[in-house]
Design brief:
- By secondary structure, this protein is mainly α.
- It has a domain of 246 residues: ADP-ribosylation/Crystallin J1 (ADP-ribosylglycohydrolase fold), CATH 1.10.4080.10.
- Helix content is 55%, strand content 1%.
- It is built from 16 helices and 2 strands.
- The protein has a two-stranded antiparallel ribbon.
- A hairpin with a 2-residue loop joins strand 1 and strand 2.
- Helix 1 runs antiparallel to helix 3.
- The longest helix is centred in the first third of the chain and has 23 residues.
- It is globular.
- The two termini are 14 Å apart.
- The N terminus is likely disordered.
- Bound molecules: magnesium ion.
Length: 367
């Protein structure tokens, strides 16, 4: 996997790659947990429940404060799949990122109480992640993801499995940007999303998000990352609607005050292109991590996904220390998410990228 993993160097900042990786993964999870409490509420309902400023921090959802949802669960399995794809490359000399990540999503499927499909029927799940008890919870998983994965078929951009443009593709792919250059991250991002989402509005935003995270890892601002990703998006057929919404998000973040009425001009974020645009608007317009993520949660749409994506972007941009400590303190599975961040860093960015120990293979079997 070294052949496509770019060298990350810090440009004009004291942030290390590990700071950004932890920020991206924990920041996304924090956004997911904050948005979870208002995911299915309109803006007027949010105000009625939380006051005129809307939600201002962690509130109970799924029976506890700080609960993550399917967005973070699947993001965690994306990380696991990327690491296992690299382990496979090391041990066999050949790998397939999409295929190994698809296998990781099959393990997520088991955590949701379903059987594995796609040739893994009846197989025991391995690795450490699927044994995490706290992941065996249904947190409003997307119907598209469940149906696509249980079908046993792996979608691809040229072999669409359905016509879904839901945001379930983009919400889980930020980790792809943590291990690759922007152009490679774009390609893997669309492939990983197209496993379950066959409409360009479902998988192209995932390519853009992965490319943006990769640019940010290399020192870009949010707006520069949009600029870097735009020609990659333009190079793909059927990009017009995604590009129009992305441009709208950039303009909104630059020009407008972030509040529910302005954000809702983009849409509800239930589709991938809208979710990305809302997250980009809030990340560009953010004064700090707290401001951006709360803006991304406080609207009538898919608050957990838009706030998760915004948290991915701002966490990568400003690093883990930018995340309010009181939010991290209450975050469900914080230690497990942080372990994945450290392990991804170890696999892809440590001095000895080729991890060869038997214990590592037990944690991340190469298939
Ligand atoms: Mg969710």
């Amino acid at each position: 996997m070294d052949k496509y993993c770019g060298t990350i160097s810090d440009v004009g900042t004291d942030l290390t790659p590990l700071d950004r990786i932890r920020g991206c993964l924990l920041g996304g999870a924090v956004g997911d947990a904050i948005g979870a409490a208002v995911e299915f509420a309109s803006w007027s309902e949010i105000c009625a429940a939380h006051g005129d400023a809307g939600i201002t921090g962690m509130e109970p959802s799924y029976g506890r404060r700080g609960a993550i949802t399917d967005d973070t669960q699947m993001t965690m399995f994306t990380v696991e799949g990327l690491i296992r794809a690299a382990v496979r490359l090391h041990h066999t000399g050949i790998t397939t990122v999409t295929g190994v990540v698809w296998h990781a999503y099959q393990r997520w499927l088991v955590t949701q109480g379903e059987e594995q499909a796609g040739g893994w029927e009846g197989e025991k799940v391995d690795g450490w992640l699927a044994d995490v008890t706290g992941l065996h919870e249904r947190r409003a998983p997307g119907d598209t993801c469940l149906a696509a994965l249980t079908s046993g078929l792996m979608g691809a951009p040229d072999i669409p499995i359905n016509d879904s443009k839901g945001c379930g593709g983009v919400m889980r792919v930020a980790p792809v940007g943590l291990i690759a250059t922007p152009d490679v991250a774009f390609a893997h991002g669309i492939d990983v999303a197209a496993i379950t989402h066959g409409h360009p509005g479902g998988y192209l935003p995932a390519g853009v998000l992965a490319a943006m995270v990769a640019s940010i890892m290399h020192g870009a601002s949010i707006t520069d990352a949009v600029t870097d990703a735009t020609p990659l998006l333009r190079s793909h057929r059927d990009h017009e609607d995604v590009l129009r919404l992305l441009d709208g998000g950039r303009r909104l973040g630059t020009a407008a005050t972030l509040n529910a009425p302005t954000i809702e001009r983009i849409g509800g974020g239930w589709t991938g292109d809208e979710a990305l645009a809302i997250a980009v608007a809030c990340a560009i317009g953010a004064d700090d991590f707290r401001h951006g993520v709360l803006a991304a949660a406080n609207h009538s749409g898919d608050s957990d996904s838009t706030a998760a994506i915004c948290g991915n972007l701002l966490g990568a941009l400003w690093g883990v220390d930018a995340i309010p400590r009181e939010w991290l303190a209450e975050l469900e599975l914080r230690d497990e998410i942080d372990t994945l961040a450290h392990d991804l860093h170890h696999q892809f960015h440590a001095a000895d990228k080729a991890v060869t120990t038997a214990s590592w293979f037990m944690r991340y079997p190469g298939w």
